[in-house]
Amino acid sequence: MEPTGQTAPRLIAVLKQTDRRYRSPSERNPFIHKPRGYDERFDSTRTEQSPLRSCKHYWTTQTVQTVLPEADNDTPYASPPLEGGKYRVACFCQHCRWHVDISLEHRGNSCPKENFPLHHFVDFKQSNPDCEYYSARCSGCEAMLHVEYREFRIQPHAVALLTDTGLLNERYQDARRADPERVNFQPTRPLDVLDALSCYVRDSLKAVETHRSIPRLNRRFLLSFGTDCDDFLRSIGFVQTDSHWELPRPPDPNPWSWDLRQVLEDVQEELWAVMRLNMPLGTDVRKLKGYNEKPGPSDADLQRLLGTTQYDKSKTTRRSPMLSQDEEIWYTALGALGDFSDELLRFAFDRQAACDPAGTPFYFDCFKKLANKRNSEELQTGAAILESEGYFTIEDVSTAYRYFTIDPQQANLISDEHIRGMFETRLSSSAVWQEHEIRDKLRIIALARNSNDLQDVATNNIQTAESALKWLESGYDGSLNISDERVINLAAVKKGENPNDEQLQEQVKSAVQLIADERNSEYLKIWLASGEAPPLSGDDALAAAYRYFNIDDRTIVLEKEVLVQYFNVAISEHPEKIEEIQKHYNLLMQHSQQETPKQEADFAEPVGLRNLGNTCYLNSLLQYFYAVKPFRELVENYEALKQELGPDESTEYGFLQPQDRFKNPVTKREVEKAQAFVPTLARLFETMSTQPSPAQPTWDLASRALEDDENASNTFPQAPEDTVSKKAASPDSHAPNSPNELPPTPDSTTASGEAASDNTLIGDGEVVMTPPSEADENQKGENGSAQTVENRKDSMEMDTGKAQPELPSRQPPPIPPRPQTTSDESATKRETESAAAQQDAREVAAKILKKMQRAFAPDRFDDGDLRHTVIKDLFYHNLKRRHASGESVIESSEVIISNLALRPASIQACLDNWFGYDALSNQFSTATYLPALLQISINRRYWTKSPPVAMFVKHNIPLDDTIHMDRYLESDSPKLAELREQTIDYTKELFQLEKRQERLSITECELVGPDALDLTYQFISRAGDELGDTGNLLELLKDEADTRRAELQDVEKRIADLEKRRSEIPFAQFDTPSNAYKIFAVIFHRGPASSASGHYWAYIRDFKADKWRKYNDEYVTDVAAPREIFEETDPATTGAPSMVIYVRNDLKETVIDPVHRVAPPQAGVDTTAAENGDVDMTDDVDGLPDSQEGMEDGDLPPQAARAATASAEDDPSNFYHG
Q: Which of 143, 476, 491, 1184 is the S-S candidate for 630 at Cβ 3.0 to 4.6 Å?
């Protein structure tokens, strides 16, 4: 339901003020749209009704179509309308000649009645967007309201036929020519024509048969209507025969029928209105046979229909023209009027809040402001009472969000879990006396979001096992991996917070009971019954261990390396739980060493990658690069293919791109940094191919991927080696070789410097500073040595001479010292997380590809100094940009950038913008070289000119399954050149039209130009005498607004026409299979306008298996319905494409290999050759493409030759052509 509740008096005001003739899709509809101020984002998409074009309605009642309840002078109704009774007022506007019918169908004890002094209409619905028909119901008596607008029956061209003196003079001349003997012909006046037609219509509506036919050659008829009015007459029911015109024959009167009688009744009303407009001054209306005097307004009839004849009004009545703009917004929001009494205003607020609870903060905000504006003691007292009962305003909601360091504008993009994490952080670091305030802020947010989970947290309301765990364990992350023993320990801690609080003790028991019932845990039930925990049986303890590490399948026997990874992940996430983690780890390790049949891991499917924190987009990119077989094989053969370095630090190693020449040579320092990155990537790729479970990138890999190669020094400190395999190989390592031995962790006793950062990544892309607490284990003393909390307390007592009172603590009892990471590693993590929050997938992809080009030796140098590598063949396309002056330049790029501000209709349209004509720079671009893969970045951000503001485009771009590139290649075809010239001409014209559109539309006040003039006109009109003599300013404003609006509409129409014609240029005739590209991978991003936050995941296509997979960090799943990739999405909520990658169709099965998995050797297999280092690498680089320039057929690229010896039939040039 849209929040559009309106009381009956407000509805009448809306009917009088609203003009639905010139409605537009972007205009606010007062019946079905949210009131202004309810939703700022919605407001930004809406325009207000233009006062210049709007009719100042003068509604009168069409009596013959109106059915009203009986009434007397004392009550709105003589007796309450019967159930099922239907009533209607048919209104006609004397100015614009539109009709509106308002009907009310009663369902029972109708309003007004006790506790419901007025109808309150809600649930407004529009049956058809193309029709102005609305329905609603009364929230007090369920009466059904219907409002139907109808346009005039006599269209403007028909009015011209009846009143245009030029046309009437032509009919006079025709009559003279047809009968020259008659000399008493006179041209008919417009008023006489209208009067004659009105008489005909009046006679048609009479029950008695009178003058039912008119001779076609009747002199008065010919002079009035001639033959050019024939179509109009037939449209209103006249029947033409060979010799006569028959008057319409409507059915018998019935106010509820919709037939010819209603048409004629409408025509009659409209004729009278047109007659008044064409009536000369001083006309004696008594001589007009078909005229009727102008009736009074329909206000009284509408009030009778809706029961508002005697509603309680304010002693100081405030009519709409006297209200300020803000007051009008507040009253509109409450569905009320300015003349409402205080009691009625309170009634309107109560009904709005009851029917739209989610909008209560907005309604309460308006109610409070009106109470203060009216200076009403009654309303102000009522507002204060409501506030004490928990009501709050929109500003209170914004304040609550800011209290937890959340931007209110981005609140809809933040999950409830994120907010709960902020709440827990704030609560755990605050004093007890602040708890009420913290919980109240969360309560406000919970009610504003309609979140039951947050309400439970705010009120300590525990209804489920999950909410019980969240209440007991502040760091609970939503998975049921807390053991029964841990639950009892947490319950003891919670009880100990206030042993004398009986309510708290019972709440703890209730929480544990919920968990016990959920798990069907006898262990917890025994504790609840006896107060003592029984010893765990072997099976229960093992089940608890599996549950702790969130391992659902207990039939899997875990390898030691896998258990070590589970341990490391648990320690990194919860270092304070080292004892509990160690206990579960030892149990699983002991269980895994028993002789249990092993279940083979699935090496037919790829593995996921664990998120280090803000690195979801890096995981998506790594999965994408891993699926590119030549890229992966190049990384695997790094040692054989790397760039050799000379001793001289000043040595230059060529240029990467043509545009880099003479300014950005590859330096030795850049090569060294690139070569520090590739081995970390090779180790990860090896893990991804051999490990049965999700792999974990290292912080070292992440930091090196994100660092800037162009800088002279590393962006990030070097991370220490941290792979399990290397530590296990060392005699001093601490790899777990027995059930009682811990996996390798940094030695906390030798850690120097400050403890690891307490920064906690609560949500995507945001770092929350956790305040320091007494639970921190180590602090630096004055001499630089570590001090315990107890030592610090002692030193405080010695300094002051008396003991300091302890603050109430929310922390669990003391725990063993947490493992300390080295300062270098902590710095690496902090710097990497910070950089990750500032970069998107496209930027990091570009950095990785540059590193790859620098790290490997080139196949050759093009043009003497341009490094040519397999990476260039795979990812980089060459552009030839031609200026109008005739000059041209060659550039190379790894990505095609699509600007969604241009609203492209498809990926192919994005390519048209990238390779085509750029009117701003007056350049035309073509492709001189196309790689195996095309990376297309979907850029959703653009900057406005003045002021420069980053804008976010939600435009959805359909993803083409196939794109064709022939039209963009260098060509000597005259026909293609002709079509390109046609494109340039269209684009130039579009460029000029769009500039004109911008000048007509954009203003400093963020309004469309004509709308800004409308508002200026409205302001000056309202100001009236206060501005003094404005001369003809109002007339000039109106003329300028109309002129600009007409020109803007014409420009927009021409732009749409040009864009359509440009899109229909027949480039498809040049498409060939050799340059067709298939969609291969899509990287999605979900989050706000800034790409620096949110979440990334990837979809990668497996052409051999004919399916898509979704790579969401550690989870890799088959895509059951590809529509989730290709259907229209919302970037902020469901996510949308950030990068789209296409592969050349004839290379897709050779270049793309998403599933590269190597199962461990089986028993009995001879591995001697591998152990001696004799590894057959014949096929390692199969699939590396040749260059398209400078290679002879059959040549093997130098990189491939150094890595393998391939047979002639395996020559890569057989599948990759230039």
A: 1184
Determine the Cα–Cα distance for residues 465 and 471; give it in Å rounded to an integer. Answer: 10
User: In 3D, which of 100, 120, 102 has the Cα closest to residue 110?
Assistant: 120
Helix (H, G, I), strand (E, B) or coil at 946: coil
CA distance 149 to 131: 8
Question: Distance between CA 543 and CA 549 in Å, rounded?
Answer: 10
- pLDDT tens-digit profile of 522-557? 878 888 887 776 665 555 677 677 767 767 555 555
The CA distance from 392 to 329, in Å, is: 19
Asked if residues 511 and 462 have their Cβ atoms less than 8 Å apart, the reply is yes
Residue type, 335: G
Per the CB < 8 A criterion, the answer to whether 106 and 140 are in contact is no
d(C-alpha 1089, C-alpha 1071), whole Å: 36
- Residue environment code for 476-505, b if the CB has 16+ CB neighbours within 10 A, otherwise e: beeeebbbbbbbbbbbebbeeeeeeeeebe
Q: How far apart are CA 124 and CA 145, in angstroms?
A: 9
Pairwise CA distance, residues 906 & 588, whole Å: 53
Alpha helix ranges (H) inside 627-660? 629-636, 638-641
- What is the spatial distance between Cα 393 and Cα 735, in angstroms, rounded to a whole number? 58
Which residues have CB under 8 Å from 750's CB, separation 6+?
Answer: none
Distance of CA 602 to the CA centre of its chain: 37
Within a 13 Å sphere around the CA of 1107, how many CA atoms are in the beta-carbon half? 11
For residues 1068 and 1138, the answer to whether their CB atoms sit within 8 Å is no
Give the span between the Cα atoms of 592 and 551, in whole angstroms: 14
The CA dihedral of 63, 66, 71, 72, to the nearest 10 degrees, is -10
Token pair listed for 653:
């190693």
Q: What is the DSSP letter of 819?
A: P
Contact 255, 239 (CB under 8 A): no
Question: pLDDT tens digits, residue range 137-193?
Answer: 999 998 999 999 999 999 999 999 999 999 999 988 888 887 777 767 788 899 999
CB distance 101 to 148 below 8 Å: yes
CB 349 within 8 A of CB 334: yes
Whether residue 202 contacts residue 282, with contact meaning beta carbons closer than 8 Å, is answered with no
The string of DSSP letters for 991-1050 reads HHHHHHHHHHH--TTSS-HHHHHHHHHHHHHHHGGGG---TTHHHHHHHHHHHHHHHHHH
Most confident of 219-228, 363-372, 890-899: 363-372
> Which DSSP string do the residues of 177-213 spell out, in sequence order?
HH-TT-----PPPHHHHHHHHHHHHHHHHSSS----E
- d(CA 1190, CA 485) in angstroms, rounded, equals 70
d(CA 220, CA 218): 6
- Strand, coil or helix: 809: coil
- Order across the sheet with 213-215: list the strands: 213-215, 244-246, 239-240
Residue 522: count of CB within 10 angstroms of its CB? 13
Nearest Cα residue to 1181 out of 1150, 1149, 1155: 1150
Please give the full DSSP string across 94-132, using - where no structure is assigned.
TTT--EEEEEEE--SSPSSBTTBSS-EEEEEEES-TTS-
Q: Classify burial at 1001, counting beta carbons within 10 Å of its beta carbon; exposed 0-12, middle 13-18, buried 19 or more.
A: middle
